Amino acid sequence: MEQKDSRHGGLGFVISPKTLPWIKSYNYVSDRVAFLDLLIPNSGGGETNYRIINAYGPTQPRALSNPELVNSFYQSLQTAFDVPSRYEVYFGGDFNAKIGKLTAEEISSDISYHVGRHGIGTRNSNGESLLDFIVENKLFVCNTAFRHPSRHITTRTGWLKDYASSVPNSTKPVYSQIDYVLCRTRSKRTLCNARSYAGASLSSDYKIVVATISIGKVYQVHREKPKPKCFNVSRLTGNTTVQRDYTRQVNAKVNVDSFKCNSDPANKMRSLMKVVKDTALDAVGVQKPTKNHKLSNDSVVVRLSEKRKDLRLKLNHNFSGDRSKIRAQINRVQKEIQHRLKA
């Protein structure tokens, strides 16, 4: 049965604008597998091919009820992986498979060449299928290679009813590692780090898995461009003293004889713009760089967003009480934010 007969979230790539010049093509293999080809120039005058494969594996219950769906998924993965050996290939996605922590026998066997020592959990049948694919194609599981706290290893948090609790509707968390980043075994030397990132800013049971790769100085992906200066215009619009000082300095510089004697309109405009910018730099100043940009500067929206974040943190750490009340509070705050943004 094809996945298109039912529904799931689909596949997609989020691309940095700096990467766009190096993209060759995007290809769709199936409802569960897609890939992106990149051609990155190197300092030697040549180019290196990269293939990024996006995957979404069938869940464990669906795999058990329909083994043909698992076979179809790995056939699609194999099709996407069918590239010349010179390609650098990376897989990423929700494989819905638990590879688990290696046993003592596996650590001393060849499996440790493909899976690191820092996995978590117990392997299931989906994990066995994924491990067979990894070993057969000489791949490595990046986010099992680095020692991190468990919260930075697990990739999904599920919730089950806690029948042992005396509190009605009580639930307990179930943590698992089912999302992975894979690379060729020869590419292990380029790995700098791999871990999951969680947070309360988004409503999701899943975490983002990030692998940091150092491709060295041979690749010229992009050059850093100087960031433009952003003037602190809020001081100019809300402070009459700054307004008078800025106006006085601009008038003093514009009224000089050398500026009036300039007959070329183009040069006069360039000189005028330079006066405006230089004076703004002295009188107004520039904005301090911010790490996290908010979608709105509205103080009410910011306050409600912080309240929503606190409620989500409370929800994630509520292991014994009724979580439905907290969810209802989060939904109410979310509606208030949406109403405020539309106003």
What topology does this entry show?
Layout: E1 23-28, E2 33-41, E3 47-56, H1 60-65, H2 67-80, E4 88-94, H3 104-107, H4 125-136, E5 139-141, E6 156-161, E7 171-176, E8 179-184, E9 191-197, E10 208-213, H5 233-238, H6 240-254, H7 257-260, H8 265-283, H9 299-316, H10 323-342
Parallel strand pairs: 3-4
Antiparallel strand pairs: 1-2, 2-3, 4-8, 5-8, 6-7, 9-10
> Per DSSP, what share of the residues sits in E-state strands of 2 or more residues?
15-25%
- Return the structural class: alpha+beta
Structural shape:
extended
- Biggest sheet: strand arrangement: 1-2-3-4-8-5
**N-end to C-end Cα span:** 47 Å
Can you count the beta strands?
10
- Rg from C-alpha positions? 28 Å
The largest pleated sheet is described as: 6 strands, mixed
| Unreliable spans | none
The percent range for helix content is 25-40%
Overall mean confidence score, pLDDT: 85
H/E element order: EEEHHEHHEEEEEEHHHHHH
Can you count the helices?
Answer: 10
